[in-house]
Amino acid sequence: MLVSRVLERALRGRRREDGGVLVMVVLFLPALVLFVVFVVDVGNWFVHKRHLQLQADAGALAGGGSFTWPCSNDTIEERARQYAGDPGNATPYNTQIPPTDGANVHVLINSEDFWNEGGTDYSDGGPPCSARMVDVKITEANLPWYFRIATVPAINARARVEIQGLFQTAGALPVAVPDVEPNVARAFFVNEATGAVLASTPLVKTATTGGTTVWDNAAAPLSVPVSAERIGVRIALGGGSSTDCGGRFVACYDLGGPNGLLYVRGWSSAGSGAQPNPPIARDVRLFPGSCPDAYFTTEASSCSVGVSAVVDFGTNDPVGANGASVTAVVGGVTRPLTYDAASGRWVSTGTDFFSVAPAAGPLPVELRWEQTIGQVNVGGRLEDCKPNGNRCVGTLGLVQRTFAGSEARSGAIKVAEVSENGVAGANSFELGTSPNLVVRIAVAGNLIHATGVNDPLVVLRVTGSQNQSVDCDPALPNLREEIRYGCAPQYAINSGSDCPATAPTLWASAQPWQCTAVQTGGAIGQVEQGLRDRILGGAAQCTSPNNWASFPDLPPGDPRIVPVFVTPFGTFEGSGNDVVPVKNFAAFYVTGWFSSPCSGDDPVPDRGYIVGRFIKYVFSLNSGGGSGQLCDFNAFGSCIAVMTE
Predict the structure, then answer these.
(1) What are the structural domain ranges in the chain?
(2) What's the whole-model pTM score?
């Protein structure tokens, strides 16, 4: 009885609360619906925002990956807009998810502001090639709420890929290319008979013209004591701070001999050439025929020079009074000189100039004399000089020198001259004088990017004496494997730090390494084997043809595009192993090696060589590290795409 009463009371209480619950539901249901709508629309906004960011990222990555050299704004922008889902593109990818109206999606390239903020294309740095970046800004305008209650005025997303200088990378070919730009230069005036230095002066970089860098001492002409008959002007170029010949990173020219690239004659006014004395050579100079300069030339074809000499015969009429004649001998060729009474000089005229062949090196100039009237002491014996019988003849010795430069003898030096008071050709002075002289050189080299299919081949000497190979990966057993797989350790451009003394010390240090170990010698056959492995996948047939004929439209990922190290000037002038700084990275397109099975490949000088051209190349993301500075398209070196925003 008691239990039933309790249950009854409980039921009556419950019935009395039904109205309150209903009221509460009525009051809170709209708020609950609004909350659900809010959650759904926030989720919808988030999904659209996330997809819009995906579009911006895809567009920037695609555009950044389309940079080539020469650069094409149209190609880069078309790819960026295509992958960004631009409704204006003919075949857009990654279009925004529904519900959206394509007309409400706005893609801007290199704009300072978003579309809804008044942004316009190229207002941030210009088109991609000049800005060296692809900045993609996308706006989705008027996104409707899921339940169509209202709209979101704008959703924005942004991504940027910059083209920076390549600072760090792995996978390079174990080959280093010396920088052709020296850090320091010096000219030495040397007594060629004794090797003694008469005077020297530093040369200062003064200008860049015609693809060459000019060095001279024009600001401080050097007083040179003319105390020797044969004075050589020796040029020292250094990749470090030293110009001591034989030192580290120092090359001294003429590389093939102990003397200089230029010759200065010291002559004496003493004595007499009047009979019965033999004649005496005084001032002797050279002058250009078709050569740009008479004393030093790097012309690709033969050119000519002439000789102008003062020869003392003891009379103002050597031809009439002595029956004299003078010939010059240059490079084994003998030609007559004509006497000019007005100047008192014997000179080359008409067709009697001397041909200077390309890369001939030093060509000494000898003078020979003959007299057919009177008597002359010849070799300590008095001779009667007769026109139809005994002719008095003799030599005046080596009196001048011209030089035809080559890579083996003069390296990257393309111009070399001595001047006095602004007049070039100051290569003959009286003994005992001290003229103030200026030495001027112009340095150029092969570290330039190809600009056309027919550009000259660049030759890399990988094995042999003074080769260009480096030991870049201590984990690999030999040169073949280093060529095959590339240098796995991370290398970076040296920021000024000293290199370890030995390779093992370098390899024990933390990466990225800013120095690399030079290695000498090496098995020549490993170059061929390594390149077959790397480029042809080890096949005996041509699986990766030479695409150079399509330059600059080289296929992406072409295995013939390989990075190589750039090291200081003079890296390979010495002998033995060394550890040298990494100055830069360059991209090299391999067009030939010894025993290549590809019919379109270029011939090589010999085994152990690789030929090709340097190219301006933009490496893809994740293939290295950027310098933080936009890439200089006009400078030698490689670039890399870096996503910065």
Answers:
(1) 30-161, 170-178+448-643, 184-317+332-367+397-443
(2) 0.74
